[in-house]
Structure formats: structure tokens, C-alpha cells
Amino acid sequence: MNNMTTENFNSVEECAQTGCAQLSSSGRYTKFIYNGKTITFLNGKDLVKYISVKKIDSGRLVVDCLGRMKGIYEDYIDLEYILENLYMNPEKFLENLKEVKIVDV
Question: I need a surface site. Which of 15, 41, 72, 82 has the fewest CB within 10 A?
Fold first, then answer.
């Protein structure tokens, strides 16, 4: 899959038309919006916000984060694991994903 960027889109529809997803955090929760679905899950206690998405590697996002105590650090989001626990097929759901955009909430 392609390297990711952190450009903001005006709407979910605009992003979806280009094969990209949106990633955001608010408090203790992360939202991943893609292909008409919003997946919400808990994030780490230290996370303030996502800074950038470096790449997607077999259903796993490599992200730079800003933490309260850690400062800037690299982390991983295992979308494959999350989707499997929601009884979704990760390969099918993510097959056309080209980019992940950070959205400020």
C-alpha cells in the first residue's frame, strides 16, 4: 500500500472518493472512518493526538503520536485485529485503501 499523508479533507465523502480513510482521536477514543463505516476503539491513556500516518503494513497502521508524557512517539494500530474482533473480513474491507488522513476533531 502507499505511504500516507496528513492532508485534511472537507468531508468524509471527499476522502472516500479517493480510496482513503480518516483517523482521529478524541479523549480516550480513536475513530477510523472508511468505506461507509466508522470504527471506534480505545486508545492509550497518554495519547493527545495523532500527528501522521507513516504507512500501512498488512492491515497495521504505523503512526506518529503526541503523548502527554512521552512527547512524540511511534505507535501501531492493528486494524486487522480490530476488524476480526468485529467479525469483519480485514482483507476485503481494506483491499482498496490507498491513504489514511489525520482529521483534527
Answer: 72
